[in-house]
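In response to reviewer comment 3 from the previous cycle, which asked for concrete evidence that the modeling workflow produces usable outputs, we include below a single protein chain processed end to end. The sequence was submitted unchanged, and the resulting structure tokens are shown without manual editing.
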Amino acid sequence: MNELGLAIIAAGVLFDLLGCLGMVRFPDVYNRLQAGTKCVTLGVCLILLGTIFMADTNPTRLKAALCMVFILVTSPTAAHALARAARTSGVELWDNSVVDQIERK
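The workflow returned the following structure tokens.
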């Protein structure tokens, strides 16, 4: 089980790395939020899943599972709130964006 847990943790670290890279490379706040939310949420959940496989005790497994549920609920909610706040405060899309589904009138 330790090898499987280590492989899952390594995949989680890779997703976290790609999410951080996307946050640096993407052009506007909306794309950066997407990179941060999707990649980092999946990365953290994979790291916690690997912890569940590697843990020796059931309380540790339960805590990791509860943290996964907490991350899966709060991360998309926080990203939505940040994107909505950015949009209502007037942060514009990137100039080369193709579709603006919330056009201002």
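Residues 33 and 79 are 6 Å apart (CA to CA). We consider this sufficient to address the reviewer's concern, and the full set will be provided in the supplementary archive.
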